Amino acid sequence: MKHLLALAIKFVIITLVLLVILTWAFDVSFLNTLMISLALTALSYAIGDLLVFLNAGKPSNQVSRNTVATFTDFIMALAIILVIGWLLTGELAGMVAPALVSALVLSAGEWFFHQYVDRSVVPWYNEYKTAKR
């Protein structure tokens, strides 16, 4: 259940950011933005939040793990938005700026999302005292 809530939160954040940047600022269609959001949410959560974040260092070194995972999320968001955007719109050059801006904004939010994952989704990983009550 904790993973479903985390996925929902991540989807809402990604969708809102991409709606503002891709749809409103760069005129990407709502449907294309929604499809990019779904793909990015699934891949980013599985790879960036569960695989990389939890295995990028010692459990007690949250800052180091967060830094590696946030950088990974930036690269992943950039690649996914660029490739899927290109496939959906047919414009590769036209998707570079939107993908870069979106990836920068999303990676800033990922820093905080990783802290949420650490404390609320996998509290046993760091043995947080407050989460075990």
Automatic annotation (TrEMBL):
Segment forming the signal sequence: none
UniProt keywords (A-Z) are: Membrane, Transmembrane, Transmembrane helix
Q: Does the keyword tRNA processing apply?
A: no
Q: Which Pfam families match?
A: DUF2512
Tell me which domain of life the UniProt entry assigns to the organism this sequence originates from: Bacteria
Q: Where are the transmembrane segments?
A: 7-26, 32-56, 68-89, 95-113
Q: Identify this protein by name.
A: DUF2512 family protein
What is the organism lineage in this UniProt record?
Answer: Bacteria, Bacillati, Bacillota, Bacilli, Bacillales
